[in-house]
Amino acid sequence: MKKYFGGCDVGSTYTKCVILDEDGNMAAHTTMKSKMNSEKSARAAMEETLAQVPGLDSPEDLAYLIGTGYGRNKVPFAQENISEISCHAMGVHMTDPKVRAIIDIGGQDIKGIAIDTDGTVKNFAMNDKCAAGTGRFYETMANAFEMSLPEFSKLSLTAKNVIPITAQCTVFAESEVITLVGEGKPMNEIAAGIQRSVAKRCFIMAKKAGATDSVTLTGGCAKNDGLKKAIEQVLKLKVVDLKTDPQLMGALGAAEYARQKGLAKGKGR
Amino acid sequence: MKDLKHLYDLEQLLQECNNDLVKEACEKGQIAVGDVCSMIPEVLLNLPGCFSVRLRAPRTGSIEIGTYYMTSLLCEYCRALVERAVEGGYNFLDCIIAPDACAAMNRCVENMELLKTCEKEKFFVTYSDVPMKSDETALKHYVRQMRLRVLEPLHDVYGIDVSDAALLEAVEQHNKVCRLIRELGEFRKEEYPRITGYEFYIFCLATYCCPKDMLLPILEETLEEVREREPDQEKTYRIRVLLAGSEIDDLDFIKLIEDNGALIVADRHCFGSFPGRDEIKICEGEDLLTQICRHYMVTGQCPRFMNTEKVEERKDYADRLAKEYHADGIIYEQMKFCDYWGYERMAASHIMHEEYGYPVLSIDRPYVVGSSGQLRTRVQAFVESVEIKKIQGGR
Fold first, then answer.
1. Does residue A62 sit in the same domain as residue A153?
2. Quick check: B325 pLDDT over 70?
3. Residue A46: inside a domain, yes or no?
4. Do residues A103 and A234 both lie within one domain?
5. What is the pLDDT of residue A269?
6. Hey, is the C-beta of A108 within 8 angstroms of any chain B C-beta?
7. Domain check: are A121 and A235 in the same one?
8. How far from A84 is each of A121, A254, B81, B233, CA to CA, in Å?
9. Chain-wide mean pLDDT for chain B?
10. What is the distance between the alpha carbons of residues B51 and B32, in angstroms, rounded to a whole number?
11. What family does this belong to (chain B) (predicted)?
12. Residue A124 phi/psi, 5° resolution?
């Protein structure tokens, strides 16, 4: 029987699963909202992913499985866990081996990652406890605009001018935005200002990690075109688009590590 | 590995600054001296009749009160100490001997004094000037300050014997503690160490926070126990690291690092065994206090020392420790807003990587780490990258 390998990325906002076959082809994937309990998130996402591959009924049917993400040590069926920093690097390397730098914007943190030629991490930088510029930040901002995130992103792209947002803190930025809206400033320009402020946050991480010529975005926020545009303007670097869903990079990297380790062990489970 | 007999008790003991051993010593009439910096020679605070307690604020939650008095731009260690002092956590102290080492600590102790957080009748605070350069001129001033700000007040207020005989007794006790701690630490050089960094840290930290005479039998017994201890047959760590940086008294921080696969084989920080547990070598023919002060000035590795020789020495010191204890990498940590380490950490993490070739993880952290997911991820990613480079044959 064909062997399959799994990666389960339990993030603070979304849980992602990827299943690879022996040749590294993606056989299935899932992205779903995380629950309060990381273990339940992992189980639900994995169940949905397994259902996409005929012959796979439970996580035990996978030859090797690795957990990653914020809840990586709460994935009950994983043989081991690997940090999301290593997994994002590997996921991107599999998707586009030419990419040397990543900005990963997840639900609660921003990371700058430099990748070596073999997909391993060369250097990384990460924000601390503050949620400024993360997915949570965007959720709060979109709520203030009474919009969905895609609508917010689209709105920011229509701006001709940018109204700078001075506060980095999520709470203060929200009140600043509410004040600006109250003053009757154009909504699209405020939205562009928010994108610019996050891009500046990314600038720090990308520079700390050592990004030089181009960069790619991963994590849920990578789907935000307004942010991508702002990053290109602020970093003055080309943002490389990935062929595979950038939100899946952590799970894909975990699955690839599982594939390499599973095959190296020969037998799997 | 089999659990160490005294480990759990000491772990519990370290949850309080005014712990059971401290209480017992106070009940016996010993004078409790609050210590806040390595620049005050610890032996001078451990003369017969008194004992030092390096101030900590374990189990700190919010530090709002400390922040009110100190502002949010000063180091969290100092803010946490003020918070704990206001909560009444240092009421057991008979005095605090502080150096003019950094502005933040100075303000911290001043606040404790002004807010009258210690209620004992004869309680006093002194501030002394300590060297920023390591040379003979600085030494002369250092010695004068220690006599004036430490020995004389202890003698005048509490009748502590500050004679040479008493100093010598304190040095001998200090050296005994150092020998035991260093010997325990030596086991971390082994490929399959019979003591973990976390276990070692508990014993080492206790030597800063508990009366030494009460701790000595515990250390002696533990050393025997570790000598006989069977190490795990399988490696329980993924990489070996030197932990260098500012003040660390948070057990959870050490645990977090080791839980993520990095065994701390050498510790070079304010509460660590390097250089804090260096023995003091005494020779005849020179004033004893001068010799003690010289020891602290010469062996001190605080970034507060700003002469070029000391700045260079600090990198070589880290390099020597990393080699001696077979470290695969270095973790440089710094308390947020620590003026001295803010610069030192940035420069050292760059130089140790670029010029000495070590993988380096650079962290600025709050006083209490708790269960920081971000920090856990950073350490684990560092471990993974060092491990992969090791497999690939590089450092």
1. no
2. yes
3. yes
4. yes
5. 47
6. yes
7. yes
8. 11, 8, 36, 30
9. 95
10. 5
11. Belongs to the FldB/FldC dehydratase alpha/beta subunit family.
12. -150, 160
Round to the nearest angstrom and report the end-to-end CA distance of chain A.
Answer: 13
Distance CA B271, CA B275 (A): 9
Confidence of residue A115 (pLDDT cuts 50, 70, 90): very high
A146 in the same domain as A71: no
SS3 A256: helix
| A120/B374 Cβ within 8 A | no
Q: For residue range A198-256, list pLDDT tens digits in order.
A: 898 888 888 888 888 889 999 988 999 999 999 999 989 889 999 999 999 999 999 99
Q: How far is CA B377 from CA A20, A68, A129, B257, B330, in A?
A: 25, 10, 12, 10, 17
Task: Say if residues B367 and B77 touch (Cβ distance below 8 Å).
Answer: yes
Confidence of residue A141 (pLDDT cuts 50, 70, 90): confident
Q: Is residue A94 part of a domain?
A: no
Please check whether residue A122 touches B, CB under 8 A: yes
Number of continuous H segments (helices) and E segments (strands) in chain A:
8, 10
Checking if the pLDDT of B300 tops 50, the result is yes
Q: List pLDDT tens digits, range B341-382.
A: 999 999 999 999 999 999 999 998 889 887 678 889 999 999
Q: Which residues of B touch A70 (CB under 8 A)?
A: 373, 377
Q: Compare CB distances from A84 to B364, B366, B377 and report the shortest one's residue.
A: B377
Q: Could you tell me which of A113, A120, A124 has the C-alpha nearest to residue A215?
A: A113
Residue B233 binned pLDDT confidence (cut-offs 50, 70, 90) = confident
Which residue is listed with tokens 């605009």? A145
pLDDT digits (tens, 9 = 90+) for B124-171: 999 999 999 999 999 999 999 999 999 999 999 999 999 999 999 999
pTM, rounded to two decimals: 0.88
Query: Would you call A121 and B381 a contact, using CB atoms and an 8 Å cutoff?
Result: yes
Does residue A103 sit in the same domain as residue A230? yes
Structurally, chain A folds into a number of domains equal to 2
CATH number of the structural domain spanning residue A58: 3.30.420.40
Q: Is B364 on the interface with A (CB under 8 A)?
A: yes
pLDDT category, A108, cuts 50, 70, 90?
Answer: confident
DSSP A173: H
Burial class (CB in 10 A: 0-12, 13-18, 19+), B201: buried
In a domain, A186, yes or no: yes
> Inter-chain contact B381–A83, Cβ cutoff 8 Å?
yes
Q: What is the mean pLDDT of residues B1-26?
A: 96
Which residues in chain A have Cβ-Cβ distances shorter than 8 Å to B377? 70, 83-85, 109, 126
Are A259 and A204 contained in the same domain?
Answer: no
| Other Cβ atoms within 10 Å of A151 Cβ, number | 13
Q: What is the dihedral of CA B263, B269, B273, B275, to 10 degrees?
A: 130
Q: A196 lies in which domain range?
A: 99-241
- Please tell me whether residues A232 and A163 are part of one structural domain: yes
Q: Cβ of B355: how many Cβ atoms within 10 Å?
A: 10
Same domain, A78 and A133: no
**pLDDT for the residue A268:** 47
Cis peptide before B275 (omega within 30 of 0): yes
